[in-house]
Amino acid sequence: MVMNPIIACQDKQVRILSDLGDGKTEILYTQKFEAACVSISLCPDLSTRSSPIIAYGLANGEIGVLELMRSKSMVLWNLEASQISSGQGAPVSLVKACNLNKSKIPGGASPKKRSKESKAD
């Protein structure tokens, strides 16, 4: 099994690695930010391009989502600290990546239809 460690670094970069075996690794993606990344979370769903999605939180209060495409990483969306209610730029301590409404998230997969038996009353 190939492992892909996701590392949030104090040098204001997120790095995604690939385990090549025999103790060797390579950097698959590097994403630079304006502040250190202090929180990351992998979304269990893939984007419409079948790419992994990672949510992140920065030391300056910014939050956002990265898509890891075949040849590069891309910020799908982000909110700067000034756009969030407090606007104080407090470090983000926890980010949870989930897809509550797949049809409304940029890069999110198409919604799956539920059968009548699985619908909530």
Which descriptors would you attach to this protein?
three-stranded antiparallel beta sheet; mainly beta; 121 residues
Topology:
Layout lengths: L5 E4 L3 E9 L2 E9 L4 E6 L10 E6 L4 E6 L4 E7 L42
Antiparallel strand pairs: 1-2, 2-3, 4-5, 5-6, 6-7
Compact description:
The protein has 121 residues and is mainly beta. Helix content is 0%, strand content 39%. It has one domain.
Description:
With 121 residues, the chain is mostly beta strands. The protein has one domain. Helix content is 0%, strand content 39%. The protein has a 4-stranded antiparallel β-sheet, with no helix packed on it. A 3-stranded antiparallel β-sheet has the order 1-2-3, with no helix packed on it. A hairpin with a 3-residue loop joins strand 1 and strand 2. The N and C termini lie far apart (41 Å). The relative contact order is 0.18.
Into which percent range does the helicity of residues fall?
Answer: under 10%
Tally of individual helices: 0
- Going across the biggest sheet, name each strand in turn: 4-5-6-7
Low-pLDDT stretches: 108-121
What is the number of E strands?
7
Distance between the termini: 41 Å
- Give the total of domains: 1
Which structural class fits the helix and strand makeup? Answer: mainly beta
Percent in strands: 35-45%
Radius of gyration in whole Å, from Cα?
A: 16 Å
Give the H and E element order.
EEEEEEE
* Largest sheet entry: 4 strands, antiparallel
Oligomer: single chain
Overall average pLDDT: 77
The coarse overall form would be globular
